[in-house]
Amino acid sequence: MDTVILLLIAAIALHLVRARYQRGRIILLGRHLSSFQLERHMETLTNGYTRAIGEQDSARQLQVLEMFSQTEHAVATQIQSLADLLQKEPAEQTRVGMLPICVPYAERFLPTMTRDFRQLLQIHAVGLRHVVDNPEQLDLKSRAYHLSAELYLFQHSCHWFCKSRTVADARLLARHKVTHQKVLESVSAQTRNAYLRWQQKPEQQ
């Protein structure tokens, strides 16, 4: 019985420590996000792309997609600004754990199992700008498909930083009905390759 009680106390203590740790991360990222309108812009784009794809008439579909040019550029600019702002944060506060679950303060005692979230944001910023500028001259429908994936992956990374990779995967599936693997396959090759390199061990980057 004493063992059960001790395990229960330990579980409660871990839960409290984890909740405090995650709250600090939410506050850190939220403080920077509050300077932008990313959530509203992203909702406008993802809902707009879904509406466009649902249009039966191809001419109308293209017309709807063309409406979002200004918002797309705004999102790309704001994500780059967010990435630049996070560069000013201390490195020890911007590590993200590679384990599926949140291990509080893993950056202190398991540093090799963490990666720099600031680098990840730069990957998202560069990748999103690449698709928005569209140097490969993708058609509007293909471009919207890749942009949706870029936005979903960016959102996944933010949830991963604040909570855990498992929570981020679950939220992505619940909110957008798509898996992390499918999203990763759907972003631009530039984003996907940089993302996979980021996931590797630091000495291999």
Top keywords for this entry?
205 residues; mainly alpha; two-stranded antiparallel ribbon; 10 helices; 73% helix; elongated
Question: How would you characterize the overall build of this protein?
Answer:
The protein is mainly α. It has a two-stranded antiparallel sheet. The protein is 73% helix and 3% strand.
Question: How do the strands and helices of this protein lay out in sequence?
Answer:
Elements: H1 2-33, H2 38-54, H3 58-66, H4 69-86, E1 95-97, H5 106-109, E2 114-116, H6 117-133, H7 140-162, H8 165-176, H9 180-186, H10 189-199
Antiparallel strand pairs: 1-2
Helix pairs in contact: 2-3, 2-4, 2-7, 4-6, 6-7, 6-10, 7-8, 7-9
Structural class based on helices, strands and sheet pairing? mainly alpha
Question: What is the CA-based Rg, rounded?
Answer: 19 Å
Largest sheet: 2 strands, antiparallel
- Approximate shape: elongated
- Spatial gap, N to C terminus: 49 Å
Instruction: Give the strand line-up of the largest sheet.
Output: 1-2
What is the helix fraction of residues, given as a range?
Answer: over 70%
Could you tell me the number of beta strands? 2
In sequence order, what are the helices and strands, one letter per element? Answer: HHHHEHEHHHHH
Report the sheet-strand fraction.
under 5%
**How many helices?**
10
Mean pLDDT: 91
**Stretches where pLDDT falls below 50 for ≥5 residues?**
none
